[in-house]
Description:
The protein has 224 residues and is mostly helical. The chain is 62% helix and 0% strand. It has helices at residues 3-14, 20-32, 36-39, 54-77, 82-106, 109-115, 133-136, 158-165, 172-175, 184-212, 214-222.
Amino acid sequence: MYAKYHIETTQWVLRDDFSPKALRQVISANLSQDSVLRFLHPNQYRRHFCNNQISDSIEYVEEQHALIESLAQQSVEQVHLARELARHQRAALGRLLHTVQDFYSHTNYVDLWLSEQPARESALIRTIDGLNEDVLNHNELRTAHWFMLEILFYVPIIGVLLRCLWLPPHSHEAMHLDSPERGLRFVYSMIMAQQRTTAEYRRAVHAIAKQGGPKVLENFYKGE
């Protein structure tokens, strides 16, 4: 998913609860997952649901949730560090949201979900479900594979020629739903990403409220 759509998806879910500063911190952490330095990291694919590292990506999301919960507990014990700990919570939320948002644009979830719907595509907008357990556990669920050679797809002229000569069906370029150019399935992936963002955000809020209480949750929202 391109940065613009990560921002839109995150804002759509969080903007009514967070202060402008706090929301910027969440979005900044979200976008940092696509930084050049992160791209060079040996474990980068687990942050983006790429290269069939589905279990690793899920583990990464769980690590960020665990960090958010741990920081809530620390905030109760170390009140003088509450604001700083809340900043780290927002960063963890941003990171995990980036990963789950990428899930729908970097896997064949949308195609699998569509294949199980009896209605025509044009009539499915109101029934879109990004949290369908049957599809999430489907034995044919797979991710796109990122090949380093794909960098050349973004080079004028060379990219056009390369697509004619080499475009594996399981490559990122062939599978991704990162932008509107991919057609109606991009719309499905965006709505599904919003649904998943809402679910993961609510989970984080519940953990903070349970482990830290109202004051810790207030710090999480304020971003002072």
